[in-house]
Design goal:
The structure holds two protein chains of two kinds.
Chain A lengths: L14 H23 L8 H29 L5 H6 L10 H4 L5 H22 L5 H29 L3 H14 L3 H4 L4 H8 L10 H14 L22 H9 L1 H5 L6
Helix pairs in contact in A: 1-2, 1-9, 2-6, 5-6, 5-7, 5-10
Chain B lengths: L5 H6 L3 H8 L12 H4 L2 E6 L5 E5 L8 H15 L5 E5 L12 H10 L1 E2 L32 E5 L7 E6 L5 E5 L3
Parallel strand pairs in B: 2-3, 4-7
Antiparallel strand pairs in B: 1-2, 5-6, 6-7
The chains are: A mainly alpha, B alpha/beta.
Chain lengths: 263, 177
């Protein structure tokens, strides 16, 4: 997708900073979208197979818009495809949560609800970005992720308040993924500059609303809020689990095998 | 009215003429609707040199029809002899089902797809709604109000799946966003 009348305003920020920040945003959507695609043809029921593919499509669409914008801000002629297909593991800035394996349906729904709640708060704040194009992308994205949260949230409650087996599985899924929560709200020097320029929120500021939504739904689902003794970190700096390499190997195969291939 | 030769008309179309051509472009996924019914065409401009610019907004970020819509616009204009066409993707303000025309809603219903109920900008449609009550979606086949949601998602990004508990027919609902 091209935005032919794209204008990059003179931001009170270094272009490289803005590109880096956009990659952090886009990479989360891209990797989670790619993960969810693995469910296509394997969903527990047809409706959920379709639902997960729909969510994946939205996420990949969001990543495309963000990558296109990043390429234009950078000004070196990189397209969305270059950014998605020609970077190796250490260049990816997504958080650990989105690269975790799908596991069973409960694992996927716990992971999804955690990131959906995060995305609703994040993109809600980004609608006020001083970067007009990012604000426009955020307004569009917000409608979609709000709908995703409704879907994953209903499943968390249904599984938690369902049978003994579904309750056990969704609780285990939240327990397993809780070590990835802290990373969502970490901030570093780049965040400080982004926040100062009014481009994006301080990640820490998203935490209270996320906590309160999580508590409300976990409680309705009769689930216990987990604790994590050894939280993971580093994804936004390019430090990843081994899972990411496999995702990229799959996703980037065509472009690596046939460099310059176009649709 | 000044006399304009056919050649000149071809070379310098009026904006109204372009809108009329766009009226003939069907939505690739819901062919009963035109792209104007869908509300995705946001602007048409014809420059002094005859170059045409069309602003199109995507329905969903990942909607695969976006590229097909742009291609269909180019095709239709090319058929009419207009080959200098630029299509701008307009993201703000974000597309909403509130932009589907009344005529479009009627066509959807006749086609067997329940049109969006209420307005996206209306009460309870904001981001605060997590488990808000679903709207009553009338069955497009028999008109019954006794329907139930089967899934939040359907065959395309813009639709959810429902069924009627009276006539027992399944149907799709155009999600209100």
């Amino acid at each position: 997708m091209t935005t032919e009348t794209q204008q990059i305003d003179a931001q009170q920020i270094d272009r490289a900073d803005l590109v880096e920040y956009l990659l952090r945003l886009g990479d989360n959507s891209m990797i989670l979208g790619q993960r969810l695609c693995e469910w296509c043809g394997h969903g527990p029921v047809l409706e959920e197979d379709i639902a997960l593919s729909n969510v994946a499509l939205d996420l990949i669409g969001q990543a495309r818009l963000i990558y296109t914008h990043a390429g234009e801000v950078e000004g070196k002629g990189q397209t969305e495809d270059d950014i998605a297909f020609l970077r190796d593991v250490f260049d990816w800035k997504n958080v650990h949560l989105v690269e975790q394996p799908n596991g069973d349906f409960a694992d996927t729904m716990a992971r999804q609800f955690m990131i959906d709640c995060y995305n609703v708060e994040l993109f809600s704040a980004l609608t006020k970005s001083t970067d007009d194009q990012l604000a426009a992308i955020a307004a569009k994205t917000l409608k979609e992720v709000t709908y995703h949260r409704r879907h994953s949230g209903e499943w968390v409650i249904r599984l938690g308040d369902g049978t003994d087996e579904s309750h056990r599985r969704i609780q285990a899924a939240f327990d397993r993924h809780w070590i990835f929560v802290e990373e969502l709200f970490e901030s570093d020097d780049l965040d400080a500059r982004i926040t100062a320029a009014g481009i994006g929120p301080d990640p820490k500021s998203l935490r209270p609303a996320w906590d309160s939504m999580m508590d409300r739904v976990l409680s309705e689902a009769t689930l216990t809020r987990p604790t994590a003794d050894f939280p993971r970190s580093g994804g936004r700096k390019g430090e990843h689990s081994e899972y990411l390499g496999y995702i990229l190997a799959d996703m980037q195969f065509m472009q690596r095998a046939y460099p310059g291939m176009d649709w | 009215m000044p006399v304009v030769s056919l050649d000149q008309q071809r070379k310098f179309p009026t904006e109204a003429a372009i809108w009329r051509l766009l009226e003939e472009v069907p939505d690739p996924e819901v062919p009963v609707l035109t792209i104007l019914d869908l509300g995705v065409v946001r602007s048409v401009a014809v420059a002094e040199n005859g170059a045409i610019r069309i602003g199109v907004t995507p329905t969903y970020s990942g909607c695969p029809a976006t590229a097909a819509i742009n291609m269909a616009i180019r095709d239709r204009l090319l058929q009419a002899g207009h080959d200098t066409v630029t299509i701008d993707t307009i993201l703000a303000p974000a597309w909403t089902t509130d932009w589907i025309s009344e005529d479009g809603k009627r066509k959807l219903r006749d086609y067997g797809i329940a049109p969006p109920v209420g307005t996206a900008a209306g009460e309870g449609a904001g981001r605060g709604t997590l488990f808000g009550a679903d709207p009553d979606v009338p069955c497009p086949h028999c008109g019954s109000a006794h329907t139930e949601k089967v899934s939040e998602f359907g065959s395309t990004a813009c639709k959810a799946q429902y069924r009627c508990t009276d006539c027992l027919e399944p149907f799709e609902y155009f999600k209100c966003i």
